[in-house]
Amino acid sequence: MYVAVKGGETAIAHSLDLVADxxxxxxxxxxxxxxxxxxxxxxxxxxxxxxGSCYDRSLAALAIKQARGDLIEAIFLLxxxxxxxxxxxASEPLDTTRMVAERRISSTFKDVPGGQVLGPTYxxxxxxxxxxxxxxxxxxxxxxxxxDATHALPRVGDILQRDGLLEPPPxxxxxxxxxxxxxxxxxxxxxxxxxxxxxxGDEGFLLALGYSTQxxxxxxxxxxxxxxxxxxxxxxxxxxxxxxxxxxxxxxxxCDMVNQFAGSHEVPPQFTRGYGLAFGHVERKAMAMALxxxxxxxxxxxxxxxxPAQDEEFVLAHSDNVEASGFVQHLKLPHYVDFQxxxxxxxxxxxxxxxxxxxxxxxxxxx
Amino acid sequence: xTMTFLAPxxxxxSHDAQRLFRGVLDAFxxxxxxxxxxxxxxxxxxxxxxxxxxxxxxxxxETPLWLEAGVDKQEVRDFLRFHAGAxxxxxxxxxxxxxIVAGGGEPFAGFAIGTDTYPDRAATLVxxxxxxxxxxxxxxxxPGIDGExxxxxxxxGDGFWPAWSANHALIPCGVDLVFACGSRLIAxxxxxxxxx
Amino acid sequence: xxxxxIQDTLPQDGAYNYAYLDEQTKRMIRRAILKAVAVPGYQxxxxxxxxxxxxxxxxxxxxxxxxxxxxxxTLKVIDQGADDTTNAVSIRRxxxxxxxxxxxxxxxxxTIIQTRHRVPETPLTDGQILVFQVPIPEPLRMLEPRETETxxxxxxxxxxxxxxxxxxxxxxxGRIAKTYNYPVMxxxxxxxxxxxxxxxxxxxxxxxxxxQLYGAGREKRIYxxxxxxxxxxxxxxxxxxxxxxxxxxxxxCGSTESFLDEMIVDDDGKRLFVCSDTDYCESRR
Lengths: 367, 196, 285
Fold this sequence. Notes:
By secondary structure, chain A is α+β, with helices and mostly antiparallel strands. In chain A, 40% of the residues lie in helices and 12% in strands.
């Protein structure tokens, strides 16, 4: 019996030992290294970094190892570590036109300046289990062309925007963007806060919401303006220097979704945008995020809010899988006091109903 | 740049702040109760130890601070900037905390009182007084007080208690006060009705 | 029995600040607590942090306790009224580990009591702080899911929706069938969720000499009831508020006054009733 009897402390100690033992598994099988996780389960690392809001491959790999591959648990571990880190400030906005892209596609044009770069994608793999992977053996390295880091890679959206066909991106913020990890979410939220929430949001939740918009629950006729994945430099302005210095490079996936907009009396028809960004190579998430971002702009663009993906409170309040996982699973905690209160009342109510029925039966018999 | 002498802040930041916080919380939970802030740093000398202790406990980079002319000395600014990192602002409405010297007119005018939906977005004001007792007797009632309590803070001007009544009437909005003298303080949250 | 062994068996974590949270976060929480005390029953938004325990398992209460706790404190943690429920043990271990604080199971010895779902039977005293873990801080949430709406209803003191809900319960069941998380009016101004304590405990909140702090981590809200503050359970003149009663008494201490847990002790469904408050029960045996 797990319930609140004496010995809770011993039970917890034993449970901790058991979970550590299960994590290690059969000792005859060699232990995973963090490097192996980083290199060979890299997309899991990317997801954990994205939803964990912390760009650190080795910490994410550690979290995945500790969580035995449960990515939501790993995200939680990384978040709980992240929250204890000191903050030095905010970086300059990433300039993704400076990206050294490994992959870059647009579905709105056959060709675009800078070219279509297919890069590493599962899109055209045939989903046949590759049994050769079950056996050991090295693969030859894939041939690659040298990356071109000298030319800026213009965004497809910027080209469309020149003709006025596409809305311009929002102007640069005056101050600093809010920080959901330090301040409570206040509703209605602005777009920077919404995007922050979505970037941290659960991939599965956003995928389902994005999908729902395609099936008519808040349709906004999306096209992939562009998806790009690669390295971008990160710059930071130290207070004592007063100018930006490059502090490193990170890998990101960016999705610029182009959507129809009917226009109105004042505004001629124009394409609008939804935006998605994720750490590492997380295309599905970036696309889903862009769909939901656009759906959440319904109010701003004068569209009727009729569907879950357009409902800011609904989306933002339920996107976080660390919150959701905790609250769903807290039902495992003892609730026997509240249940006892319910028992007392349900019994009393049942007794009253039974008494009424009995009296009614007696009255009927007497007639 | 010449650095004026900088008085020391908390000797043991984590535990000093914790102890002082509990003192202030005790005061807010029991309006009218005189609470001694044990072992608070002395500060630059031109503010009471209680006011310094309060500010070091609660103020930081995220809480703009407003200082009345009487206490807005260079050594106070240097001390609070260095030890708390709090930005010092000229506009009352921008301040999370304010430091006021008792006796002036319209002591609360212009400070943030919060909104009906977010009444927490209101300023907390520290009022430097000459004594926490021996002044004009008032009767306080409200949350934290068992029935009523008599409080006789000294040095408050004639207009003070009418101004407080107006503030109390704004509930749930309104400013909250801390009266400071030496190393002791009394808290007066907006929820308290004062019979002067 | 106080669990004094925990400190010896757990590693000290030099990597973390005292009481886990960094000082900046503690200051932010302390400011929120001060405003919560100044506006009794109003839910103050705060920048809740991810804690090393899951959301829904007491992260709000833990953050409030972490902002309060110091070397002079004695901490008691209960869940369902018991000190030895697994989650209570886990939270007590956490604070013994990160704050090296003395812990106790005796209500009277504690300066801070963190609780989930119960208020101790032993009356609390001036100087004690009761920290509640709160899952859903908004008392109107199940009637109106939107935060923007409920915030406006509180601002306007527009609580008709709650009255209607209670009245519907009377119409259906002949009584207010709500048994836990029973809404209260604080200081005549804000309707407040007392957290999922049984309504049996509601009268203990009224004019208590102890300070009550409520922390909701996932929802990022802190609220408070200062000492001696009126806390009224909502009711109607013709349907006054009542608490649960039992015909049985505690099988261990014989109490007829405490909240009793029902235990099924054999396969035939035989039942036994014992005090939910383990410290109260042990002190009477």
